[in-house]
Amino acid sequence: MPPEPFFSGAGLDRADLLRGQPERIAGLASDRAARQLRWLESFPVLDGEGRLEWGPVDDPALFLGFDQGAPRFSALVPASPADVRAAFAFLALLDPNDAPILAAALSLTNWHRRHRYCASCGKPSAIVRGGWSRKCESCEAEHFPRVDPVVIMLAEHGGRLLLGRQPHYPLGRYSALAGFVEPGETIEAAVARELNEEAGILVSHVTYVASQPWPFPSSLMIGCTARALDDRLTIDTTELDDARWFSREEVAAALAGAPNAAFLPPPPYAIARTLLENWLAA
Ligand SMILES: [Zn+2]
Fold it and tell me: Which residues are found with C-beta within 5 Å of the ion, ligand 1?
């Protein structure tokens, strides 16, 4: 089995069929087995093992679904989204088994905080469907939690991989290039456009590898590989500090944590890491 990205897995039974039944959801909130995710400011609370902590239900605004038949809720959290460093520190502690639940709960609560008004008419909207949509109280337009597709990709040329450095990366880190899919674009076109914009290369054979929800705040990372037609780079220095080709040996040494490795690889919870591991294993 090839390695799977962090945030993979079934998570909770989302019980979509119940979402349109507010009385049933209210009944579930008073079920003896019901639990609510505990939050401290921008993140859920973790126990000493990195598992999500659950407590009594006192604000069942968001119905997350069932964990082996037991109802699970989350509250509306007023805190602002955390910055990227706080997010990475949190992910480093989180047990991978709870990552899919975290992804859903975090994206959902951040979406509600930022979408309290109708995007059509500007009037207040209300939570419906157990927290999985909002309905305008004036024009009745329904709005759904957003998911923003992002392509993230490895370009290959002559057995070497293209990786880049963003300005905010820790010293020495290189990772896969990435960018948002634009309206009217296929995944393949977005991969080709981003690689051309950021590194000045043309590619063919775009191939899907794996995907990963990334709840900061609502991305879906779509991991791909592509073949570069040549290896001459023209780097967009407004997006990247640097981009370089790395050999198979250099990638293997970096993933193994070799002290003299050519670069510091992306962290284990990043899909870029999974793409590199898959490429090495292939
Ligand atoms: Zn409206």
Answer: 118, 120-121, 136, 138-139, 141
